Amino acid sequence: MTNLPIINRELSWLSFNERVLQEAESPDVPVLERLKFLGIYSNNLDEFFRVRIATIKRMILFDKRAKQELGFAPSKIFDLIQDKLKTLQKRYTKAYENLIKELEKENIFILNETQLDKEQGEFVKNYFQESVRLEIFPIMLDKAKQFPTLQDSSIYLATRFSKKNKDVHYALIEVPTTSISRFLVLPPKKNKQYILFLDDVIRYNLKDIFQIYDFDKIEAYTIKFTRDAELDVDNDVSLTFLEAMEKSLKKRKSASALRFVYDAKMPKDFQNYLINKMGLDNKVQLFSGARYHNFKDFIKFPTLGKTDLLYPDQKHVPHPDLIKTRSILDKMKSKDILLYFPYHSFDYFLDLLREAAIDPNVSHIRITLYRVASNSHVIKSLITALHNGKDVTVFIELRARFDEEANIDWATILREEGARVIPGITGLKVHSKVCLITRREKGHKIYYACMGTGNLHEKTARTYTDTMLLTANQSITKEARQIFSFFDKNYSVPKMSKLLIAPFTLRSKLIHLINREIKHAKNGKKAEIFLKLNNLVDEEMILKLYNASNAGVKIRLIIRGICSLVPGLAGISENIEAISIVDKFLEHTRIFVFHNSGDEEVFIGSADLMTRNLDYRIEVVAPIMDEKIRKQLISIMELQWQDNVKARIFDEIQSNTFKIANGEKRIRSQDAVCEFWKEFARKKKK
User: Fold this and answer.
1) Rounded distance between C-alpha atoms, residue 390 and residue 382, angstroms
2) What Cα–Cα distance (Å) separates residue 173 from each residue in 111, 158, 203?
3) Of 64 and 123, which is predicted with more confidence?
4) Are 431 and 455 in contact (CB under 8 A)?
5) In the chain, where are the structural domains located?
6) What is the mean pLDDT of residues 107-136?
7) How many other C-beta atoms lie within 10 A of the C-beta of residue 105?
8) CA pair distance 482, 494, nearest whole angstrom
9) CA-to-CA distance for 608 and 610, rounded, in angstroms?
10) How far from the centroid of its chain's Cα atoms is residue 242's Cα?
11) 162, 275, 437, 598: which one has the fewest Cβ atoms less than 10 Å from its Cβ?
């Protein structure tokens, strides 16, 4: 399989982040939204280093063997990554400089501490004393027995101060961005508005911080540290799964160093002092950066009331089947319902949970949680159900990357409230998005299920596009019940005829569905496959799609992120086309459409076509049984395929070329999908 034309996943991921950067560069995107895209790019890149670069570096230790196993030399890929990163960093810097100029045209000015006038200086000093001072805890490096463990989500001011012919002192200050906004809005003057980084608030007050020292020179430079974020969960049988996770998280905080970023203006002797003090070796990448790091904070840049510099707020489209509904459970019993976020409100799902929590006939709520909001109304609804005497079973995945600590806390809270909490399954991550409600009706157990493509997270439901199926179809819901039975008895593999479950039936069923299209094509029938995914990486699935293309099956792919498949190659993938849509909402839906000689089969679910999703996670992909909903999803897929504003074309060289209208009507698919749901609501209202 390694001789297949395959784009390396790391390089394809960088190509995805380049599409994010394109949004930050685009003059068609409102200025403050472009700043957010800079923040998203930066946040993505941090995670890339913490996870993917860490993995590549481990592979390099076994370079020759890895090449035999994987078909590529990790060291060569690492060099290609570095070249791409250098190119993107230049574009990123230029995009930031251009945005500063754009902000100034709008009378918004980002100042540093040397540019403050007397009045602004007094304001900053007062702010520091009232809001910042007590959050500052300097560590004197020249006195410390060992260098402190730097957190890779934080930024620090490396500070040096001295007096002529006297000792030089070194200190480290963590910039407290977890408790204080990174940006201070200064009082406006005339029509001008001013913003100061928190870093510079601290710089402006350095003399006060170190007032017990006698010095005549003080300087401070921002530094940042990145560590390996992969978890090695301890298999000590004496530990519970939760205890093992907590132990592994502590190890992550002192894991191997990967990257040290410092202000390029930091003097060389100061750099060397820090590198030596930290004991960094030549395995750690050193990056000379700009004055400010952690640009992920631009995601929360102050809006200053400038709504014209932002995308308009997404107003939720009322779902006609749920407007003024007395009981969502009753409505689900009468028909299947599709929710499509963020066009529909996530409140519908919260209302369903609230209803189940107080319905006297509901006996049990079962749910899988991967990521939830920090102030989760999903969790609150489950606790309400417990207070009302319901049985609540929660599978909460403790290994959800970078949400591990939050999930441990939620697991503890739910357990203390009386929920039955299942914290993990050895060897399998539970990534499925399933909620199952059991209701007693006329002496029988009736199951109601919600199955979706996204996390049960009310915050991301406002910015991610995701679908959720609400159904009381017992042929599906009883199979959903089997999933929760498997969580109890891991040796009892669920037997499914409707649901596609990884790692048991999903891969084989998808191969069967592709083979069926191949058979139709060979018999001269129309044969098509239309997939919408976040990532397409698995080599077996790519080979199967190449085989389908060679058999004459028309294949269309909408892939937001990584796409290792190469479309449009003569004799290999000439019947495959692929695009990526990056716009104001993060495209997160996973939809599978198989033409089936005109009797289309449509599925939605939590799985991407990655080996980890197909073989090492519990994923649930549900068939759409309702014909109207099938047609809705196919119509939406067609609208997205027609996008000629925000769609990029996948090709062999990963050029990220935009699909251009060329005189045709401009179609921006996210706006078109919103209009689609509005029209659906209007028609139902008549």
Assistant:
1) 9
2) 21, 7, 10
3) 123
4) no
5) 1-103, 106-311, 328-495, 501-685
6) 96
7) 8
8) 6
9) 6
10) 24
11) 598
The whole-number average pLDDT for the span 84-99 is 94
The correct CATH number of 106-311 out of 3.30.1840.10, 3.40.50.2300, 3.40.190.10, 3.40.50.1820 is: 3.30.1840.10
Domain 1-103 falls under CATH 1.20.58.310: yes
Q: What phi and psi values does residue 168 have, to the nearest 5 degrees?
A: -100, 135
The per-residue pLDDT for range 583-612, each reduced to its tens digit, is 999 999 999 999 999 999 999 999 999 999
Burial class of residue 638 (count of CB atoms within 10 Å of its CB; 0-12, 13-18, 19+): middle
Dihedral over Cα of 109, 114, 115, 120: its sign: positive
Give the alpha-carbon dihedral of 85, 86, 87, 88, to 10 degrees.
50
Interval 427-454: pLDDT, tens: 899 999 999 999 999 999 999 999 999 9
pLDDT averaged over the chain?
91
3-state SS, 584-597, equals CCEECCCEEEECHH
C-alpha distances in angstroms, 424 versus 306, 412, 437, 675?
A: 45, 14, 21, 41
- Note whether 322 and 349 are within 8 A (CB): no
Spot the catalytic one: 431, 520, 588, 595: 431
Residue position matching structure tokens 């050895």: 426
Got the DSSP string for 98-127? HHHHHHHHTTEEEE-GGG--HHHHHHHHHH
**What CATH homologous superfamily does 328-495 map to?**
Endonuclease Chain A (3.30.870.10)
The pairing of strands 576-581 and 554-559 is parallel
Using only C-alpha atoms, what is the Rg of the chain?
27
Our CA angle for 142, 147, 149, nearest 5°, is 145
- CATH superfamily of the 501-685 domain: Endonuclease Chain A (3.30.870.10)
Q: What φ, ψ does residue 387 adopt, rounded to 5°?
A: -65, -25
Task: Report strand pairing: 601-605 vs 617-623.
Answer: antiparallel
Phi, psi of 423 (to 5 degrees): -90, -10
Q: In this predicted model, which residue has the larger pLDDT, 638 or 149?
A: 638
Identical topology for domains 328-495 and 501-685: yes
Residue 431 falls in the annotated catalytic set = yes
Tokens for 496? 């499914």
Do 263 and 147 touch, CB atoms closer than 8 A? no
What is the arithmetic mean of pLDDT over 402-407?
81
In the three-class reduction of DSSP (H, G, I as helix; E, B as strand; rest coil), residue 265 is classed as: coil
Backbone angles phi, psi at 633, to 5 degrees: -65, -40
Report pLDDT for 239: 46
Percent of the chain residues past pLDDT 70, beyond the cut: 93
Taking a C-beta distance cutoff of 8 angstroms, is the pair 529, 595 a contact? yes
| Main-chain dihedrals φ then ψ at residue 651, nearest 5 degrees | -145, 180
